[in-house]
Each structure stands twice: as structure tokens, then as C-alpha cells.
Design a protein that fits this description.
The structure holds two protein chains of two kinds. By secondary structure, chain A is α+β, with helices and mostly antiparallel strands. Chain A is built from eight helices and five strands, in the order ααααααββαβαββ. The chains are: A alpha+beta, B mainly alpha.
Chain lengths: ~220, ~220
């Protein structure tokens, strides 16, 4: 999706402003919002790619004007309603008015420590890898209206495969609920000038983690 | 004026605070009443991210790599496996990749599409990492971004920006500061900042807190 979230290379956002001694959360609700998202993720009703798509689908003006955890809260509200887990009227009222569904899993306090370890996204490969480190590749010029992990600034660009990272769940399919559709994942590196033109910093190289369907031989 | 800017931020933050406190409380109440979440689990998750998971974990990994060449080799070969074998922290999942800074190469990590970050070794990302200025500029103006952090590198140092566009996660192994040859792992870990493991900073200057310098002063 060519959305506002795809920010690489955009101008006009100003300086980076690090906050000295930044707290983990700036308000109690931020921590609760993060934890609610984690706990609802544990139910297995949606994948991480569906949650990323849920942020990307927020209206651009909301995306830009909301803090990080506000986006997470809006996304969770939307997903809860979309999956029929609660009505917008109940969220508005702040109380359940109807009984809940029975879900596959519910996160218990005792099980939280094991959820701090990320699951693996590696999957058995359906076919041999098409590319090898050292291969020259060109990223495809694609503009899907749905979730993709190929950023705009790196489309249609000539790069070099630097590493093969294994065969992983393919976000573009998983975000649509089309199963995991495992694909080979590569680190592909580009010269700064390939991405940004002759005025680019000569000492710059940028890499993306590219799934095989994003690439063609060059 | 910077002063006005801060007041605006404060004002916006204040109104969002009230709105979001109520909104998140409403959502939590509904989810709990429906039986989908256990508020006790919510408390444990918050506590974990406030106290257990943070950049102190990554700093231990870096300090060990500085002090133990065999571990450094293993870390650069397969960081998930090497960190799990250390046994210092909660088990780290797959796909962690360590990238080494040298005098000729400086690595910087970004996620231009969202906020991907190695939570298990660095904790939750800081606000600036998730912000539009960092995500937009890291890939085309990394030296400008470094300047925002007060960092300047030689013109001939190659800058490599890693855009975290998949489930691979990156940890920068910063350069070990000179003059720390006899330092213990704990002393070294105190020099390893979060930003140095993202690539927007360098390890701390040891002359600022050299334990041996302090000892000699005390004597």
C-alpha cells in the first residue's frame, strides 16, 4: 500500500529529536495499550502482518497526528470491531453489553514470560532459492493497494544480494489472511546513488530485507 | 521559538493524555468483561517491559563480544544462537543479526515502514526511532541524522543503513573504545549505550568514567 507509513526518503519532517532519559512509557495508558495489543495478539485471531496493515489503513491525517501508542489503540479498536469481538457501541460505552465469543487462547499472567520471546517466522521452503549472495537483482516496480514490505524508495532499483536469510512467512499474503505462503528472504544492498541519484552521499549503502517475489534477475 | 514549540507539545500531549486514558480504559474494560483478556496478565506485560526487557541486555551482549573473541565470532555468525547460549536474559527468538562497526564501516538500523526493532535485546524503541523524521531521513541522509545526535564520522567511512523490512532484527556491535583493554565486562557494559547499538551513537568515552582513573584519584 502506497500509504503515509512508507516514509523512507520523504522530506519535510524536520530534525530527529532524541529525548534524554526517555521513560519506557510516557503515561500509564501507553503501557496498558501495548499490553492489550500483546494479549489480544496472543489469542491467535490475527497475524502480525494484519496488525501492521491495521496501522497502515488508518487515515493519513490520523496516522501523522497520532502518537505511536494512540495508533496502536485505534488499530486495536478497529480490529476488535472488525472481528466481531465487541461492538463499537460497547467500546463507546466502556462496558460489554453482550456476551463475548469463545476464543482459542487467553493469555494468563503465568504465561507472559514465554511471550517475551519472539516466535520464528522461518518455514520449510516449497522450492529452492532463486538467488544466491553476489547475484545482481532488480526490485520489481509494484504498487499493490494492500500490505507489502517493499518500500517505495527501493522499487525498480538495481541491487546485490548480500545474504540469504531463510524461507519466511510472506507478509503480503499473510496480511490478507491468505495463509503463510513462505518465500525466500534476502538482504539486498543498494548504492546510495542508485536510490537517490548523483547527489547522494557517495559513502552510503542501504539494504532492505527483500522477499523473493519482490526481485527479478538483473 | 523553541520555547513556544515545547509548550505546544505539552498542550497536545496533555489533551491526548485525557482522551487516551479514557479510551484505553474503556477498551480494556470491554475486553476483560468479554473474557478475552486477563487484566493481571496486562500488569505482568507492562512490568516486564518496564523492568526486565531493555538495552541493558544488549549492552551485556556487546561487552561480552568485546572481551571474548570466540563469542564475537559466534555472535556475528548467528546472533540468536549466540545470545541464547549466553543465558543472560529471557530467551531471544530467531532472526537476530549482529552487524559490526569498524573504522571503515558504520552501521545504522531503521524501520522505514513501521517500527521494527530488536525488543528482546534493546527493549521497546524510543519515540524518535518510531518518528517520521528518523524513518524518512535515515535512508537518504544518515550523516544529517547522526549530526542530530551530535555524531560526526570521517567522510570516507562507509555508512550502511539496514532497513528492517522483514522479521530479521539487527543489533549494531559498536567499536570498543580505546583505553579499555583491561576493563571487566561489567565496566565495559556501562559504556554501551542504546543508541550505539542502533547506530545513531557511539560507545561512551571511557575517560568520562574510567574506574582506574577514579581509583588513582582516590589514592
Amino acid at each position: 500500500m502506497d500509504g503515509i507509513h512508507d516514509m523512507g526518503g520523504m522530506h519535510g519532517f524536520g530534525k530527529v529529536e532524541p529525548e534524554p532519559n526517555e521513560p519506557v512509557f510516557h503515561a500509564d495508558w501507553e503501557g496498558r495499550c501495548l499490553a492489550l495489543n500483546r494479549a489480544m495478539g496472543y489469542t491467535g485471531l490475527w497475524t502480525i502482518d494484519q496488525t501492521r496493515a491495521g496501522i497502515e489503513e488508518l487515515p493519513p491525517e490520523v496516522y501523522l497526528s497520532s502518537s505511536y501508542y494512540r495508533k496502536w489503540a485505534l488499530r486495536l479498536e478497529n480490529m476488535v470491531v472488525k472481528h466481531g469481538l465487541a461492538g463499537a457501541d460497547e467500546i463507546e460505552a466502556g462496558h460489554a453489553m453482550r456476551p463475548g465469543q469463545t476464543l482459542k487462547r487467553k493469555l494468563a499472567a503465568a504465561d507472559v514470560p514465554k511471550t517475551l520471546t519472539r516466535g520464528s517466522f522461518a518455514r520449510p521452503a516449497p522450492a529452492p532459492a532463486r538467488f544466491a549472495p553476489g547475484d545482481r537483482v532488480r526490485t520489481k516496480n509494484i504498487h499493490p493497494a494492500t500490505h507489502t514490505r517493499l518500500p517505495r524508495y527501493a522499487r525498480g532499483k538495481l541491487g546485490t544480494v548480500e545474504a540469504l536469510r531463510g524461507c519466511h512467512v510472506f507478509p503480503d499474503a499473510a496480511a490478507l489472511g491468505r495463509g503463510e505462503d513462505p518465500q525466500w528472504l534476502y538482504t539486498v544492498v543498494f548504492a546510495g546513488r542508485e536510490l537517490w541519484g548523483d547527489a547522494a552521499e557517495p559513502s552510503l549503502k542501504v539494504s532492505i530485507e527483500a522477499f523473493e517475489p519482490y526481485l527479478e534477475p538483473a | 521559538m523553541p520555547h513556544d514549540h515545547r509548550e505546544d507539545d505539552h498542550h497536545e500531549h496533555g489533551s491526548e493524555l485525557n482522551e487516551m486514558q479514557l479510551r484505553v480504559r474503556a477498551l480494556e474494560t470491554v475486553l476483560a468483561e468479554k473474557g478475552y483478556i486477563d487484566p493481571a496478565a496486562i500488569d505482568v506485560i507492562i512490568e516486564a517491559y518496564e523492568t526486565k526487557v531493555g538495552p541493558h541486555n544488549g549492552a551485556r551482549v556487546v561487552a561480552r563480544a568485546w572481551n571474548d573473541p570466540a563469542f564475537k565470532k559466534a555472535l556475528l555468525a548467528d546472533a540468536s544462537k549466540a545470545v541464547v547460549a549466553l543465558g543472560l536474559m529471557n530467551r531471544v527468538g530467531d532472526h537476530l543479526i549482529a552487524v559490526e562497526n569498524t573504522p571503515k564501516l558504520h552501521n545504522m538500523i531503521v524501520c522505514t515502514l513501521c517500527s521494527c526493532y530488536p525488543w528482546e535485546v534493546l527493549g521497546l524503541p524510543p519515540v524518535w526511532y518510531k518518528s517520521a523524521p528518523y524513518r524518512s531521513r535515515a535512508v537518504n541522509d544518515p550523516r544529517g541524522v547522526l549530526a542530530d545526535f551530535g555524531v560526526s564520522l570521517p567522510a570516507d567511512t562507509e555508512i550502511r543503513v539496514w532497513d528492517s523490512t522483514a522479521e530479521t532484527r539487527f543489533l549494531v556491535l559498536p567499536m570498543r573504545p580505546a583505553g579499555t583493554e583491561s576493563w571487566s565486562e561489567d565496566e565495559l557494559a556501562a559504556l554501551v549505550t542504546r543508541d550505539s547499538m542502533i547506530g545513531t551513537g557511539l560507545a561512551k568515552d571511557p575517560s568520562a568514567n574510567n574506574p582506574q582513573a577514579k581509583n588513582s584519584k582516590a589514592m
